[in-house]
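Q: Hi! First time doing this. I have a protein sequence and I read that you can turn it into a structure. Is that right? Here it is:
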Amino acid sequence: MTGPPTWTQIAASGTPPAPRSDPSVIYDPVRDRLLLFGGSIRCGLTCFTPQNDVWQLTLAGTPTWTQLTPSGTPPPPRSNAAAIYDPVRDRMVIMAGSGTNPNGAWALSLSGIPTWTDLTPWSVPHSTYGPAIYDPIRDRALLLQSDGSGISALDFKDQPNQPLWCQIVPSGNLGARYGASAVYDPDDDAAIVFAGRTPGGDLLDTSFRLDLGGGFLLDAGGSHGTVVVDRWCHSSGEIATLYAVPDQGYHLNQWLGDASGSSNPLEITMNGYKVIRAEFITPGAVDEEPPAAFALSIRPNPTAGSGTIEYSLPHEALVRVRVFDVAGREVARLVDGLQPAGRHVAKWGEASGGVRPRAGIYLVRFETPEGRWTQHLALLR
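A: Yes, that's right. Below is the predicted 3D structure, encoded as structure tokens:
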């Protein structure tokens, strides 16, 4: 890069990989080499076969091609996979792409004998195509989705060998662009995206930047459910609200990472970059003994249909279960009378008398002579 910039073809020795399209490539700065994984080899006029081989091109002295034979189980053959160099752990990380398990991620350790590890990430990305960059300040990969659906963060914080996919929708509009290139700008803490093509095939020559340092970012997600956050970026001291939405047959067990407990919704004070995981589990066997204490829970929450309101009584008691809007007005009375000991269920949120409740935040209040318990219910439409 000294003097006038000039392109020069590299005359490499050794046997190069077969000609291919859409491989994954990184630069290994510790060993001054290029690493190539996978891609597709032509097998006919319109036929391409995905690969999962690994090659290196050493750059010191005479550049030389060599095929590597890592130990461990490699990723399934794939093309268009995103790749980054993870400098903290000295490894190549392959993610997403076209092939079996498109939501997966795999790490190739580079010190000693190269070894593949399946990272089995939590959750899933927005989509599985797009360029990736490594964000060194927050220790994560950012996969910029080619279809314009947003960004997927693969967070290594706390659990680098089982990272978390987090789906993000920044403000602004990058639009759909396939085959774009992306880099991380360390001076400005920003992602820069250039070129690509539209879904209609028009070639693009525009550039976009995504500033990452304008506040404290919140990445959240979970397997067997999703996490809805009020927004991605917060100012110092601001309260962020997270809603855990389990898949059918699951419920929120606990928050992990930069949060704890099982409150849903969860409110946290933003005083730095945070990564929060929601652990969703299937219900265990029902205990036939009466509950040990009064309890109230709601799931799913938020809900686009009816919310299941579960309340527990350690002994027979007079019970009221009512729903209020944020102005304190009673909008529904679900239970009002004597109830036996045990676990009980009420539902609310579907149409009643042909009228559906409006979307918004509601308060569900469970009252007995021994006390009163209240939880928020987010109703979506």
